[in-house]
Amino acid sequence: MTGMPVFSGLREALLKTGFPFDFLENRGRLRSAAEGAAYWGIDLGATAPALILRAEKHFLLLILSGSSPRVDLEALSREIAEKGLRMATAAEIQEHFGIRPGEVPLFGLGLPTLVDRALLTHEFVYGGSGDPETTLKVDPRALLALNEGSQVVEVPCQAGE
Question: Would you say domain 5-153 falls under CATH 3.90.960.10?
């Protein structure tokens, strides 16, 4: 693991929670949930892409199941009572968090976090560690324990997908 500054204390924080986890080394960058599921030989639904969203006045972290079709941000905005919800741009992510899309960790950004209810049905979920060559395998309950202001949501999907 190359040790991105965004999660330098991630291992220690995970140890304190008592939830099982492991850092798995990739042999290259995994660019999608489908690619990650195939690489690790797991169910697509156990992948946990982490997306940074921009609301009117702040950022949020959305951790969704890889099996979720395209998120309906307008419906999600209404569900969580946040105005102007949209995907953060690559420039915003770089400027505010010092990372690139695809390097977003499941923990450690200090953002209000929305966790897809579908992830809680898995023993482990696989997602970002902050290092593009390392996947975090973790008990999904840790998503709620280590993200401030986290809440479980039913992720609305766009019609026809």
Answer: yes
Question: pTM for this one?
Answer: 0.90
Distances (CA, A) of 101 to 40, 46, 63, 93, 105: 21, 20, 13, 7, 10
Q: Pick the closest to residue 24 from 12, 13, 39, 34 (CA basis).
A: 39
CB 38 within 8 A of CB 28: no
Q: How many CB atoms lie within 10 A of CB 5?
A: 9
Torsion, Cα 105 106 109 111, to 10 degrees, reads 140
List the pLDDT tens digit at each of the 161 positions of the chain: 344 444 557 888 899 999 999 999 998 889 899 999 999 999 999 999 999 999 998 999 999 999 987 899 999 999 999 999 999 999 999 999 999 888 899 998 999 999 999 999 999 999 999 888 899 999 999 999 999 889 999 998 886 64
